[in-house]
Design a protein that fits this description.
This protein is mainly alpha-helical and about 80 residues long. About 45% of the residues lie in helices and about 10% in strands. The protein has 2 helices and 2 strands; from the N terminus they run ββαα. It has a two-stranded antiparallel ribbon with strand order 1-2. α1 crosses α2. It is globular, with a radius of gyration of 13 Å.
Length: about 80
């Protein structure tokens, strides 16, 4: 997909990997995006039969609690 078609809320400098999602909380890693991410992942997990449980790992930074809650909301709504 050409970069001009990528929505503004999806940052091009994010890294998805074995250590999770890395990105700036102050700009793009906001609750709305994280809810959408949790919802999308939850839909895929359901459709592929990967189970009904998800483990969310986080560190002790303040932003971790926001990230956790937003992802939980997305998974629950899926």
């Amino acid at each position: 997909m050409p970069s001009k078609e990528i929505p503004d809320y999806f940052p091009l400098d994010w890294r998805f990997g074995t250590d999770g999602i890395r990105g700036s909380v102050e700009t793009y890693m906001n609750p709305l995006f994280l809810v959408k991410l949790g919802w999308a992942a939850g839909k895929i997990f359901k459709e592929t039969g990967l189970g009904n449980s998800v483990l969310i790992g986080k560190d002790t930074r303040i932003s971790g609690y926001m990230i956790e809650s937003a992802l939980e909301s997305g998974f629950i709504s899926a």
